[in-house]
Amino acid sequence: MAYIRLASVEADIKNAVVRHNLNHLFQVDIVVVYNPNSHSKAVARIWGINKIFQEVLGLNPVYIMELLRPFKRLSCAERVKVIAHELAHIPATKSGALRPHNKAFWRDYKLYAGLFKCEDFPSLKINAGF
Fold first, then answer.
1. Would you place residue 125 in the very low, low, confident or very high pLDDT band (cuts 50, 70, 90)?
2. Residue 129: pLDDT above 70?
3. Residue 2 pLDDT > 80, yes or no?
4. pLDDT at 130 over 90
5. Burial 40-50 (b: 16+ CB within 10 A, else e)
6. Whole-angstrom Cα distance, residue 75 to residue 121?
7. Any idea what the Cα angle at residue 105 is, between residues 100 and 109, rounded to 5°?
8. 3 state DSSP class of 99
9. Could you tell me the domains of the chain?
10. What phi and psi, each to the nearest 5 degrees, are found at residue 12?
11. Apex CA 58: angle with CA 88 and CA 27, to 5°?
């Protein structure tokens, strides 16, 4: 399986987190990959590295955002909303766990979706091509 690492999207996320002062996301590493081989109807997924792996391997909290084939067909605005959705799964505890679609998730999703604009993510523009 070939995953393609999207360092430009990672950098855009870090810049947006700093620009919008999203404190709990400062201290986590977010890796973004594109999976061109997925047959899922999903647009994206986020994966957390469990706390035991973090502690034993000496890692910071790490989350991996996997963008799937349908993501490429979205407009820039829709892509930004997907990024906001996946980031809302990261809890303030930064434990490596993932937040379900609960009240805190929807609160953060609405915040991120309102803050983030296509201009915050130049790498997500349709012609930027990843």
1. confident
2. no
3. yes
4. no
5. eeebbbbebbe
6. 12
7. 135
8. coil
9. 4-128 (3.30.2010.10)
10. -60, -40
11. 30
